Amino acid sequence: MELKRKWAMPNKKTFTIKPIRELIDKWVIESEALDPFPFEYSEDALDYLKRQTPKKYALFDPPYSPRQLKECYNGKGDFDTKASTWSTWKDELSKKILPGGICISFGWSSQGMGKNRGFVIKEILLVAHGGMHNDTICVVEQKVQNTLLEVF
Q1: Which run of H or of E encompasses 69?
Q2: How high is the pLDDT of residue 78?
Q3: Residues 62/93, Cβ–Cβ less than 8 Å
Q4: d(CA 148, CA 152)
Q5: Are the CB atoms for 44 and 78 separated by under 8 Å?
Q6: Residue 107: helix, strand or coil by DSSP?
Q7: Strands 136-143 vs 119-128: parallel, antiparallel or unpaired
Q8: Of the spans 12-21, 60-69, 139-148, which averages the highest pLDDT?
Q9: How far apart are CA 94 and CA 117, in angstroms?
Q10: Checking phi first, is residue 119 left (phi over 0); if not, alpha (psi -120 to 50) or beta?
């Protein structure tokens, strides 16, 4: 596993931050990636994921906290700020990534998709933003199996 730290100005459009853009370009063919949280929210992420066919690449850039979820999606449909909401999104997304595929998760935690969903960490990028801004933590994972208990 590779661990890197870079500095960049913050931006609410995560994928426009230079070191994050470079990480995505290194690991993912973005035009072929599942992205349940495009910058301009248009539908519920779970509904979006349920309609998708499995793909090799995914980007998981949800609101990073219950407060962000409420601020971003208030007035745009139903949403739940319980911690289980993020787990539900990850469970559904993990079903839509092909074995051998890559998922890059973004947030204030290095949790990523996790080994219980069949993923192993390949790279972590910490993007410091200075001042009172939290770092953006980017976790690149590869799906090696469908669940922790799967036997080949």
Answers
A1: helix 66-73
A2: 57
A3: no
A4: 11
A5: yes
A6: strand
A7: antiparallel
A8: 12-21
A9: 7
A10: beta
Indicate the residue type of 40.
E
Asked if 129 contacts 10 with a C-beta cutoff of 8 angstroms, the reply is yes
The number of angstroms, rounded, from the C-alpha of 82 to the middle of its chain's C-alpha atoms is 18
Bridge partners of 95, per DSSP, are: none
User: Rounded to two decimals, what is the model's pTM?
Assistant: 0.89
**Residues 25 and 147 sit within 8 Å (Cβ to Cβ):** no
Q: Which helix (DSSP H) or strand (DSSP E) does residue 50 occupy?
A: helix 45-51
Contacts of 18 (CB under 8 A, 6+ apart): 8
pLDDT at 72 over 60: yes
Angle, vertex CA 43, rays to CA 58 and CA 146, nearest 5 = 30
**Domains, the chain, ranges and CATH?**
2-143 (3.40.50)
CA distances from 30 to 57, 59, 72 (A): 8, 8, 23
pLDDT digits (tens, 9 = 90+) for 103-118: 999 999 999 999 999 9
What are the structure tokens assigned to 43, written together?
């539908």
Contact of 147 with 118, CB cutoff 8 Å: yes
